[in-house]
Automatic annotation (TrEMBL):
The gene is qor. This is NADPH:quinone oxidoreductase. One of its GO terms (molecular function) is oxidoreductase activity. Residues 11-322 form the Enoyl reductase (ER) domain. SUPFAM superfamilies: GroES-like (SSF50129), NAD(P)-binding Rossmann-fold domains (SSF51735). CDD domains: QOR1 (cd08241). It holds the Pfam family ADH_zinc_N. PANTHER family: QUINONE OXIDOREDUCTASE-LIKE PROTEIN 2, SHORT-CHAIN DEHYDROGENASE/REDUCTASE.
Amino acid sequence: MQAWICDNPIGPEALTWKEVPTPSPKAGEVLVAIKAAGLNFPDLLIVQNKYQMKPPLPFVPGAEYSGVVEAVGEGVTHLKPGDAVAAFAGLGGFATHATVQAALLMPLPKGFSFPDAAAFLCTYGTTYHGLMDRAALQPGETVLVLGAAGGVGTAAIQIAKAAGARVIAAASTDEKCALCRELGADATINYSTGNVRDEIKSLTGGKGPDVVYDPVGGDLAEPVFRSIAWRGRYLVIGFAQGTIPSLPLNLPLLKGASIMGVFWGEFARREPKNNVQALTQLATWYAQGKIKPVIEHQLQMSELQRAFDLMAARQVRGKVVLTN
């Protein structure tokens, strides 16, 4: 097999594409022939040694992938060679093959494409957990999505609309705002040109959004939180801008508002039954055409470093997927 190896976590430029022995699955594991892998922001952080999980060296990055079962280890009875699956395993995806715990695999329904599946679990799992579980989003409520043209942002637009909410999508260019409207956003804000607080006030009649979905962080967080509705829920998804904001704690007091962390990977580990229910609902919405990953760039697996360059330059709308 071939794999991208990280033995010096100083950035994507230090990764090497190497031939390595193909592993055999141990008890409880499955060997997957990878067809597609999705690129997520934590994949960049982990090869820069900036992520909360710091795997022992060397390792193969790539948290999310889809493919076909080639072999199963002892004790695995619910999967067999030839089954189409998707995985969010944390590591191993930027390769031609990977062994993974069978419990981490999602069997793919008929008609679920490998590229879509490789851009689905992390992005849509995170977003469903945030909006529906943590924020308990209700039909008719207003959701403000920051970084709305990115992977989790585009998922948030689709899931919020499927749940019957009104969506205001905020992005950094007019082109990204146009994409958000195509995906169903009711209104958009270009936060690189407009006054965010004034625009939120205008678009919500002064009430503010009921839910804020924030994968950006940085200097947007405080002005947006100051605009949140009474009993609003502020979802902390990530920090794509690079800076972790510090919010004055008098703000949630004055608005009766909540700040909620969204860590889907830990939720899936601690609450597997609830996670299965969420993924089942998402698969149903996918089959109904209500949600579908936005994949702007589909590259060969050997082009991983180009994919990282696109992500670092914030030139990606939706997701980058790499295929074998």
